[in-house]
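Each lists chain and fold; for instance:
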Amino acid sequence: MNNLLKILFPLELHLHILQLEEYKLARFMRWNIKNLFVRKVFIKRPLVYTQKVKYLIVIYFVILFILLLVNIYLFILFLLEPFLGLVVAVLILKPYEIYNKERTIKETRNKILFLKSNKLKVIGITGSFGKTSTKEILYQILKTKYRALRTPESFNTIFGIARVVDLELDKNYDYFVCEMAAYKRGEIKELCKMIPPDYGILTGITTQHFERFGSLENTVKAKFELVDSIKQKENIVFNLEDENILAQLEKLDIKTSKQDIYAKRVEFGNWGSDIVLDINSKEFKVRTSLFGFANVKNIILAASMALRLGFGDKEIVNAIKNLEPFDNRNVLIKQDNLTIVNNTYSSNIASFKETIETARRVSGKKVLATPGIVELGSLETETHKELGKLCRDVFDRVVLVGVNNRTKSFAKGLVGNFEFIADKREDYFKKLEQLKKEYDWIFLENDVTENY
Protein backbone atom coordinates (compact mmCIF):
# COMPACT_ATOMS: atom_id res chain seq x y z
CA MET A 1 0.00 0.00 0.00
CA ASN A 2 2.83 2.36 0.92
CA ASN A 3 4.62 1.68 -2.39
CA LEU A 4 1.40 2.31 -4.32
CA LEU A 5 1.00 5.71 -2.62
CA LYS A 6 4.60 6.62 -3.53
CA ILE A 7 3.89 5.74 -7.16
CA LEU A 8 0.66 7.73 -7.29
CA PHE A 9 1.96 10.68 -5.26
CA PRO A 10 5.76 10.85 -5.75
CA LEU A 11 6.43 13.68 -3.31
CA GLU A 12 9.36 11.88 -1.65
CA LEU A 13 11.00 11.15 -5.03
CA HIS A 14 10.66 14.75 -6.19
CA LEU A 15 11.99 16.05 -2.88
CA HIS A 16 14.95 13.68 -3.24
CA ILE A 17 15.77 14.87 -6.76
CA LEU A 18 15.39 18.51 -5.64
CA GLN A 19 17.90 17.89 -2.85
CA LEU A 20 20.32 16.07 -5.18
CA GLU A 21 20.15 19.02 -7.57
CA GLU A 22 20.92 21.28 -4.58
CA TYR A 23 17.59 23.11 -4.95
CA LYS A 24 18.58 24.57 -8.35
CA LEU A 25 15.16 24.99 -9.99
CA ALA A 26 16.35 24.96 -13.60
CA ARG A 27 18.10 21.61 -13.14
CA PHE A 28 15.18 20.25 -11.08
CA MET A 29 12.63 21.22 -13.73
CA ARG A 30 14.80 19.78 -16.49
CA TRP A 31 14.93 16.42 -14.71
CA ASN A 32 11.17 16.33 -14.15
CA ILE A 33 10.29 17.28 -17.71
CA LYS A 34 12.65 14.59 -18.97
CA ASN A 35 11.23 12.02 -16.48
CA LEU A 36 7.63 13.20 -16.33
CA PHE A 37 6.09 9.77 -15.68
CA VAL A 38 8.97 8.26 -13.72
CA ARG A 39 7.91 7.17 -10.26
CA LYS A 40 10.84 5.09 -9.03
CA VAL A 41 14.57 5.72 -9.33
CA PHE A 42 17.43 4.11 -7.45
CA ILE A 43 19.41 6.85 -5.71
CA LYS A 44 22.57 5.97 -3.81
CA ARG A 45 22.23 8.75 -1.22
CA PRO A 46 19.10 8.76 0.97
CA LEU A 47 16.90 11.83 1.32
CA VAL A 48 18.06 13.89 4.29
CA TYR A 49 15.18 15.52 6.13
CA THR A 50 16.91 18.82 6.80
CA GLN A 51 15.09 21.82 8.20
CA LYS A 52 14.79 23.15 4.66
CA VAL A 53 13.14 19.94 3.44
CA LYS A 54 10.69 20.10 6.35
CA TYR A 55 9.80 23.71 5.52
CA LEU A 56 9.24 22.78 1.87
CA ILE A 57 6.94 19.92 2.85
CA VAL A 58 4.84 22.22 5.05
CA ILE A 59 4.60 24.90 2.35
CA TYR A 60 3.72 22.28 -0.27
CA PHE A 61 0.78 21.00 1.78
CA VAL A 62 -0.40 24.55 2.45
CA ILE A 63 -0.39 25.11 -1.32
CA LEU A 64 -2.40 21.91 -1.79
CA PHE A 65 -4.95 23.03 0.80
CA ILE A 66 -5.40 26.42 -0.89
CA LEU A 67 -5.80 24.76 -4.31
CA LEU A 68 -8.36 22.36 -2.88
CA LEU A 69 -10.46 25.37 -1.91
CA VAL A 70 -10.08 27.37 -5.12
CA ASN A 71 -9.47 24.94 -8.02
CA ILE A 72 -9.93 21.17 -7.80
CA TYR A 73 -8.18 20.54 -11.13
CA LEU A 74 -5.02 22.35 -10.05
CA PHE A 75 -5.20 20.50 -6.75
CA ILE A 76 -5.17 17.14 -8.55
CA LEU A 77 -2.35 18.25 -10.87
CA PHE A 78 -0.13 19.44 -8.00
CA LEU A 79 -0.95 16.26 -6.06
CA LEU A 80 0.01 13.91 -8.90
CA GLU A 81 3.03 16.00 -9.96
CA PRO A 82 4.47 17.34 -6.68
CA PHE A 83 7.43 18.99 -8.41
CA LEU A 84 5.10 21.83 -9.46
CA GLY A 85 4.24 22.63 -5.85
CA LEU A 86 7.85 22.20 -4.76
CA VAL A 87 8.99 24.80 -7.30
CA VAL A 88 6.48 27.28 -5.85
CA ALA A 89 7.54 26.31 -2.31
CA VAL A 90 11.24 26.98 -3.10
CA LEU A 91 10.34 30.44 -4.45
CA ILE A 92 8.22 31.23 -1.38
CA LEU A 93 11.04 30.12 0.93
CA LYS A 94 13.73 32.14 -0.88
CA PRO A 95 13.50 35.44 1.10
CA TYR A 96 13.75 33.57 4.40
CA GLU A 97 16.69 31.56 3.06
CA ILE A 98 18.60 34.72 2.16
CA TYR A 99 18.07 36.08 5.66
CA ASN A 100 18.90 32.73 7.29
CA LYS A 101 22.09 32.31 5.25
CA GLU A 102 23.42 35.72 6.27
CA ARG A 103 22.55 35.04 9.90
CA THR A 104 24.26 31.63 9.76
CA ILE A 105 27.41 33.08 8.17
CA LYS A 106 27.61 35.81 10.84
CA GLU A 107 27.04 33.50 13.82
CA THR A 108 29.43 30.83 12.55
CA ARG A 109 32.11 33.41 11.75
CA ASN A 110 31.86 34.86 15.25
CA LYS A 111 32.36 31.43 16.82
CA ILE A 112 35.32 30.66 14.54
CA LEU A 113 37.00 34.00 15.31
CA PHE A 114 36.54 33.38 19.04
CA LEU A 115 38.10 29.90 18.79
CA LYS A 116 40.93 31.23 16.63
CA SER A 117 41.72 33.82 19.29
CA ASN A 118 42.53 30.85 21.53
CA LYS A 119 44.53 28.32 19.47
CA LEU A 120 42.40 27.01 16.60
CA LYS A 121 43.84 26.99 13.06
CA VAL A 122 41.58 26.53 10.04
CA ILE A 123 42.70 24.65 6.93
CA GLY A 124 40.52 25.14 3.85
CA ILE A 125 40.61 22.58 1.02
CA THR A 126 39.11 23.11 -2.42
CA GLY A 127 39.57 22.06 -6.02
CA SER A 128 37.74 20.32 -8.83
CA PHE A 129 38.71 16.88 -7.53
CA GLY A 130 40.41 15.16 -4.61
CA LYS A 131 38.98 17.47 -1.92
CA THR A 132 37.42 14.80 0.26
CA SER A 133 40.30 12.33 -0.10
CA THR A 134 42.95 14.97 0.67
CA LYS A 135 40.90 16.13 3.65
CA GLU A 136 40.64 12.58 5.02
CA ILE A 137 44.36 11.92 4.56
CA LEU A 138 45.36 15.20 6.21
CA TYR A 139 42.96 14.54 9.08
CA GLN A 140 44.47 11.10 9.67
CA ILE A 141 47.97 12.61 9.71
CA LEU A 142 47.01 15.51 12.00
CA LYS A 143 45.30 13.39 14.61
CA THR A 144 48.53 11.45 15.26
CA LYS A 145 49.82 14.58 17.01
CA TYR A 146 46.97 17.06 17.54
CA ARG A 147 43.27 17.28 18.25
CA ALA A 148 41.73 17.79 14.84
CA LEU A 149 38.20 17.99 13.50
CA ARG A 150 37.23 17.75 9.85
CA THR A 151 33.97 18.27 8.02
CA PRO A 152 32.47 14.76 7.64
CA GLU A 153 31.81 13.02 4.32
CA SER A 154 31.01 15.74 1.80
CA PHE A 155 29.74 18.43 4.19
CA ASN A 156 31.17 21.29 2.14
CA THR A 157 28.48 23.98 1.84
CA ILE A 158 27.42 26.83 4.14
CA PHE A 159 24.74 25.07 6.15
CA GLY A 160 26.57 21.73 6.32
CA ILE A 161 29.78 23.32 7.58
CA ALA A 162 27.90 25.63 9.96
CA ARG A 163 26.19 22.61 11.50
CA VAL A 164 29.54 20.93 12.16
CA VAL A 165 30.93 24.11 13.74
CA ASP A 166 27.83 24.56 15.89
CA LEU A 167 27.57 20.99 17.16
CA GLU A 168 31.15 19.70 17.27
CA LEU A 169 33.83 22.40 17.18
CA ASP A 170 35.02 23.68 20.55
CA LYS A 171 38.08 25.24 22.20
CA ASN A 172 39.77 21.86 22.71
CA TYR A 173 40.60 21.48 19.01
CA ASP A 174 43.89 22.57 17.46
CA TYR A 175 42.89 22.25 13.79
CA PHE A 176 39.66 22.40 11.81
CA VAL A 177 40.00 20.90 8.32
CA CYS A 178 37.23 22.30 6.15
CA GLU A 179 36.31 21.05 2.69
CA MET A 180 34.90 23.84 0.49
CA ALA A 181 32.80 23.16 -2.61
CA ALA A 182 31.35 25.48 -5.23
CA TYR A 183 29.26 25.33 -8.40
CA LYS A 184 29.62 29.00 -9.23
CA ARG A 185 31.83 31.99 -8.51
CA GLY A 186 31.35 33.63 -5.13
CA GLU A 187 30.44 30.49 -3.18
CA ILE A 188 33.96 29.76 -1.86
CA LYS A 189 34.36 33.46 -1.08
CA GLU A 190 31.25 33.19 1.13
CA LEU A 191 32.62 30.07 2.83
CA CYS A 192 35.93 31.81 3.52
CA LYS A 193 34.05 34.73 5.03
CA MET A 194 32.25 32.32 7.35
CA ILE A 195 35.29 30.12 8.10
CA PRO A 196 38.37 32.37 7.61
CA PRO A 197 41.19 29.96 6.69
CA ASP A 198 44.76 30.24 7.97
CA TYR A 199 46.03 27.57 5.59
CA GLY A 200 44.79 26.18 2.28
CA ILE A 201 45.17 23.33 -0.17
CA LEU A 202 44.24 23.66 -3.85
CA THR A 203 44.00 20.08 -5.11
CA GLY A 204 43.59 20.69 -8.84
CA ILE A 205 41.37 22.38 -11.40
CA THR A 206 39.65 20.74 -14.33
CA THR A 207 36.40 20.96 -16.27
CA GLN A 208 34.47 19.07 -13.58
CA HIS A 209 30.90 20.46 -13.45
CA PHE A 210 31.62 22.41 -16.65
CA GLU A 211 27.88 22.43 -17.32
CA ARG A 212 27.34 24.43 -14.11
CA PHE A 213 30.36 26.75 -14.25
CA GLY A 214 30.00 27.53 -17.95
CA SER A 215 33.73 27.91 -18.62
CA LEU A 216 37.12 26.79 -17.34
CA GLU A 217 37.92 30.44 -16.56
CA ASN A 218 34.95 30.61 -14.17
CA THR A 219 36.09 27.39 -12.49
CA VAL A 220 39.64 28.70 -12.01
CA LYS A 221 38.44 32.01 -10.56
CA ALA A 222 35.99 30.20 -8.25
CA LYS A 223 38.64 27.87 -6.82
CA PHE A 224 41.18 30.69 -6.40
CA GLU A 225 38.77 32.48 -4.07
CA LEU A 226 40.37 30.33 -1.35
CA VAL A 227 43.80 31.63 -2.37
CA ASP A 228 42.52 35.22 -2.34
CA SER A 229 41.28 34.84 1.25
CA ILE A 230 44.65 33.76 2.71
CA LYS A 231 47.11 36.63 3.15
CA GLN A 232 50.21 34.49 3.70
CA LYS A 233 50.50 32.63 0.40
CA GLU A 234 53.29 30.44 1.80
CA ASN A 235 50.54 28.82 3.93
CA ILE A 236 48.95 27.40 0.77
CA VAL A 237 49.81 24.04 -0.78
CA PHE A 238 49.24 24.00 -4.54
CA ASN A 239 49.14 21.01 -6.85
CA LEU A 240 52.09 22.17 -8.94
CA GLU A 241 51.49 19.43 -11.51
CA ASP A 242 48.23 21.10 -12.51
CA GLU A 243 48.68 23.34 -15.56
CA ASN A 244 45.54 25.38 -14.81
CA ILE A 245 46.83 26.21 -11.33
CA LEU A 246 50.29 27.07 -12.64
CA ALA A 247 48.84 29.36 -15.31
CA GLN A 248 46.71 31.25 -12.77
CA LEU A 249 49.63 31.57 -10.32
CA GLU A 250 51.70 33.13 -13.10
CA LYS A 251 48.83 35.41 -14.08
CA LEU A 252 48.43 36.63 -10.48
CA ASP A 253 52.23 36.80 -10.02
CA ILE A 254 52.09 34.53 -6.98
CA LYS A 255 55.52 33.07 -6.27
CA THR A 256 55.73 29.50 -5.03
CA SER A 257 58.72 27.42 -4.05
CA LYS A 258 59.31 23.96 -5.49
CA GLN A 259 57.41 21.09 -3.95
CA ASP A 260 58.78 20.06 -0.56
CA ILE A 261 57.52 16.51 -1.09
CA TYR A 262 57.20 14.50 -4.28
CA ALA A 263 57.10 10.89 -5.40
CA LYS A 264 60.22 9.66 -7.17
CA ARG A 265 58.90 6.16 -7.89
CA VAL A 266 55.59 4.35 -7.41
CA GLU A 267 54.42 0.76 -7.76
CA PHE A 268 50.89 -0.57 -7.43
CA GLY A 269 49.55 -3.98 -6.48
CA ASN A 270 46.67 -5.59 -4.64
CA TRP A 271 48.32 -4.46 -1.38
CA GLY A 272 48.02 -0.75 -2.30
CA SER A 273 50.90 1.54 -3.28
CA ASP A 274 54.66 1.47 -2.75
CA ILE A 275 56.07 5.00 -2.94
CA VAL A 276 59.59 6.39 -2.78
CA LEU A 277 59.00 9.85 -1.31
CA ASP A 278 61.46 12.71 -1.48
CA ILE A 279 60.96 14.88 1.61
CA ASN A 280 63.32 17.85 1.69
CA SER A 281 65.85 15.92 -0.44
CA LYS A 282 65.73 12.80 1.76
CA GLU A 283 64.32 9.53 0.39
CA PHE A 284 61.80 7.38 2.24
CA LYS A 285 60.23 4.11 1.10
CA VAL A 286 56.58 3.95 2.11
CA ARG A 287 53.92 1.29 1.65
CA THR A 288 50.31 2.44 2.04
CA SER A 289 47.00 0.64 1.63
CA LEU A 290 45.76 3.62 -0.42
CA PHE A 291 45.86 2.71 -4.10
CA GLY A 292 46.52 4.54 -7.34
CA PHE A 293 48.01 7.72 -8.78
CA ALA A 294 45.11 9.85 -7.53
CA ASN A 295 45.73 8.83 -3.92
CA VAL A 296 49.50 9.31 -4.30
CA LYS A 297 48.88 12.92 -5.35
CA ASN A 298 46.44 13.42 -2.47
CA ILE A 299 48.98 11.98 -0.01
CA ILE A 300 51.65 14.39 -1.29
CA LEU A 301 49.33 17.41 -0.89
CA ALA A 302 48.29 16.40 2.64
CA ALA A 303 51.86 15.55 3.66
CA SER A 304 53.13 18.88 2.28
CA MET A 305 50.62 20.69 4.49
CA ALA A 306 51.70 18.61 7.49
CA LEU A 307 55.31 19.66 6.78
CA ARG A 308 54.24 23.33 6.86
CA LEU A 309 52.51 22.69 10.19
CA GLY A 310 55.73 21.47 11.81
CA PHE A 311 55.57 17.69 11.34
CA GLY A 312 58.90 15.95 10.99
CA ASP A 313 59.66 13.75 7.98
CA LYS A 314 59.58 10.51 9.99
CA GLU A 315 56.28 11.52 11.63
CA ILE A 316 54.78 12.05 8.18
CA VAL A 317 56.11 8.74 6.84
CA ASN A 318 54.78 6.77 9.82
CA ALA A 319 51.37 8.42 9.46
CA ILE A 320 51.24 7.56 5.73
CA LYS A 321 52.03 3.92 6.47
CA ASN A 322 48.98 3.75 8.73
CA LEU A 323 46.46 5.52 6.49
CA GLU A 324 43.05 3.85 6.26
CA PRO A 325 41.08 3.76 2.95
CA PHE A 326 37.79 5.64 2.66
CA ASP A 327 34.56 4.51 1.02
CA ASN A 328 34.37 4.14 -2.77
CA ARG A 329 37.54 6.11 -3.52
CA ASN A 330 39.99 3.67 -5.11
CA VAL A 331 39.25 1.08 -2.41
CA LEU A 332 40.71 -2.36 -3.07
CA ILE A 333 38.41 -5.35 -2.67
CA LYS A 334 40.28 -8.67 -2.85
CA GLN A 335 38.50 -11.93 -3.69
CA ASP A 336 40.90 -14.86 -4.20
CA ASN A 337 42.96 -13.94 -7.31
CA LEU A 338 40.65 -11.06 -8.23
CA THR A 339 41.12 -7.42 -7.20
CA ILE A 340 38.28 -4.91 -7.60
CA VAL A 341 39.18 -1.21 -7.59
CA ASN A 342 36.10 0.60 -6.34
CA ASN A 343 36.22 4.25 -7.44
CA THR A 344 32.47 4.73 -7.71
CA TYR A 345 32.01 7.79 -5.50
CA SER A 346 32.38 10.19 -8.44
CA SER A 347 34.61 10.81 -11.43
CA ASN A 348 36.22 13.65 -13.31
CA ILE A 349 38.60 13.92 -16.25
CA ALA A 350 41.76 14.06 -14.13
CA SER A 351 40.86 11.12 -11.87
CA PHE A 352 39.66 9.06 -14.85
CA LYS A 353 43.02 9.53 -16.59
CA GLU A 354 44.80 8.64 -13.35
CA THR A 355 42.75 5.44 -13.13
CA ILE A 356 43.84 4.52 -16.66
CA GLU A 357 47.51 5.19 -15.87
CA THR A 358 47.24 3.22 -12.63
CA ALA A 359 45.72 0.26 -14.50
CA ARG A 360 48.61 0.43 -16.96
CA ARG A 361 51.02 -0.24 -14.05
CA VAL A 362 49.40 -3.48 -12.79
CA SER A 363 49.77 -6.89 -14.39
CA GLY A 364 47.01 -9.32 -15.22
CA LYS A 365 43.81 -9.37 -17.22
CA LYS A 366 41.95 -6.07 -16.73
CA VAL A 367 38.42 -4.79 -17.37
CA LEU A 368 36.94 -1.32 -16.88
CA ALA A 369 33.26 -0.70 -16.08
CA THR A 370 32.06 2.91 -16.33
CA PRO A 371 29.06 5.09 -17.23
CA GLY A 372 31.44 7.94 -18.09
CA ILE A 373 31.49 11.40 -16.54
CA VAL A 374 28.39 13.54 -16.01
CA GLU A 375 27.92 17.34 -16.10
CA LEU A 376 30.50 18.04 -18.81
CA GLY A 377 28.07 20.02 -20.97
CA SER A 378 29.50 20.86 -24.40
CA LEU A 379 32.74 18.99 -23.57
CA GLU A 380 30.99 15.65 -23.15
CA THR A 381 31.53 14.18 -26.64
CA GLU A 382 35.21 15.00 -27.17
CA THR A 383 36.17 14.20 -23.59
CA HIS A 384 34.73 10.69 -23.77
CA LYS A 385 36.29 10.04 -27.17
CA GLU A 386 39.67 10.96 -25.70
CA LEU A 387 39.15 8.71 -22.67
CA GLY A 388 38.21 5.86 -24.99
CA LYS A 389 41.46 6.29 -26.94
CA LEU A 390 43.50 6.27 -23.72
CA CYS A 391 41.91 2.95 -22.73
CA ARG A 392 42.79 1.18 -25.98
CA ASP A 393 46.02 -0.54 -24.96
CA VAL A 394 45.33 -0.70 -21.21
CA PHE A 395 42.15 -2.74 -20.68
CA ASP A 396 41.32 -6.11 -22.18
CA ARG A 397 37.66 -5.13 -22.14
CA VAL A 398 35.50 -2.09 -21.38
CA VAL A 399 31.92 -2.32 -20.13
CA LEU A 400 29.98 0.88 -20.89
CA VAL A 401 27.06 1.42 -18.53
CA GLY A 402 24.08 2.92 -20.34
CA VAL A 403 23.52 3.78 -23.98
CA ASN A 404 23.80 7.56 -24.30
CA ASN A 405 26.05 10.23 -25.78
CA ARG A 406 28.69 9.67 -23.07
CA THR A 407 29.10 5.96 -23.67
CA LYS A 408 28.66 6.15 -27.46
CA SER A 409 31.40 8.78 -27.62
CA PHE A 410 33.59 6.63 -25.38
CA ALA A 411 33.05 3.67 -27.71
CA LYS A 412 34.15 5.73 -30.73
CA GLY A 413 37.54 6.17 -29.11
CA LEU A 414 37.90 2.46 -28.31
CA VAL A 415 39.19 -0.26 -30.56
CA GLY A 416 38.53 -3.87 -29.61
CA ASN A 417 36.54 -5.57 -26.93
CA PHE A 418 33.75 -3.45 -25.43
CA GLU A 419 30.05 -3.78 -24.75
CA PHE A 420 27.07 -1.74 -23.58
CA ILE A 421 24.83 -2.71 -20.66
CA ALA A 422 21.69 -1.04 -19.32
CA ASP A 423 22.12 1.84 -16.85
CA LYS A 424 20.39 -0.13 -14.11
CA ARG A 425 21.86 -1.49 -10.92
CA GLU A 426 20.41 -4.97 -11.45
CA ASP A 427 22.16 -5.30 -14.84
CA TYR A 428 25.31 -3.68 -13.48
CA PHE A 429 25.77 -6.12 -10.59
CA LYS A 430 24.81 -9.09 -12.75
CA LYS A 431 27.56 -8.12 -15.20
CA LEU A 432 30.08 -7.71 -12.36
CA GLU A 433 29.42 -11.28 -11.23
CA GLN A 434 30.24 -12.47 -14.76
CA LEU A 435 33.40 -10.37 -14.93
CA LYS A 436 34.69 -11.79 -11.64
CA LYS A 437 35.08 -15.19 -13.30
CA GLU A 438 37.15 -13.85 -16.21
CA TYR A 439 39.50 -11.09 -14.97
CA ASP A 440 42.30 -10.43 -12.48
CA TRP A 441 41.41 -6.74 -12.10
CA ILE A 442 38.03 -4.98 -12.31
CA PHE A 443 38.23 -1.18 -12.30
CA LEU A 444 34.91 0.52 -11.40
CA GLU A 445 35.04 4.19 -12.41
CA ASN A 446 32.01 6.25 -11.36
CA ASP A 447 28.65 4.89 -10.23
CA VAL A 448 25.51 3.92 -12.12
CA THR A 449 23.81 7.19 -13.06
CA GLU A 450 20.14 6.25 -13.01
CA ASN A 451 19.12 9.50 -11.33
CA TYR A 452 20.59 11.68 -14.13
